[in-house]
Design goal:
One of its GO terms (biological process) is modified amino acid biosynthetic process. The chain is built from eleven helices and eight strands. The two termini are about 35 Å apart. The strands form four sheets. The chain has a two-stranded antiparallel sheet with strand order 1-2. A two-stranded parallel ribbon has the order 3-4. The protein has a two-stranded antiparallel sheet with strand order 5-6. It is globular. The protein has one domain: Creatine Kinase, Chain A, domain 2, CATH 3.30.590.20. The protein is mainly alpha-helical. The longest helix is centred in the middle third of the chain and has 20 residues.
Amino acid sequence: NLLRPYLPLLLALSTSSPFYEGERTGFHSYRTKLFEALPLAGLPRSFGSWEEYETLLNFLKSRGIISSFRDLWWDIRLKPEFGTVEVRICDVPGRFEDLLVIVALIQTLAFWLSESKPPPGIPYEAIAYGKWQAARHGLEGSLIDPKTLRKLGFVSLAHEFWQILAAPAQKLGTWPYLKRLVVLAERRPVSFLMLAHFQKGATFPAIIKEVLEGFWR
């Protein structure tokens, strides 16, 4: 529940699917829109207790809708066998360095939220708005800041988190990676690079080749 409002930021930092079958879609993360067409995918609702979550699972399993929790392809879900939370909203980051930043951000966010006062409640619709903004506009979009409930651009929130999460990240040991969050926010994820090449007339295979070659840079 506490991580759900921050999912749009994680998507905005990782967008890498602006094309579908070689055609520009108008989105920075078209993969997100494809997954939302599935009945058990997308943004989950909040749960008031573990019992409420179990009740839903038992209902779906008893009616043959799912065979296990793995059939719930939510953007974030519990991972009982590991005793953790699985964040699934991200596109595949286009650079290995970006991947390290995003993983560090997720870990530090979870640590910070578990150690601090819970933010005020935010409606499902507000989170869904942020997710759509991330999918459509990438880092140029906006969301509702879960702590202040104000509308804020993704880049601005990334800069704020760079400051807010510095101390928790140093305590957790993730700061060597998280400190490059501002670099990622300013450079922007690979969807922007792909679209820039497209605007210059590059073919889709040439764009993919450039992304692959740049993954380890």
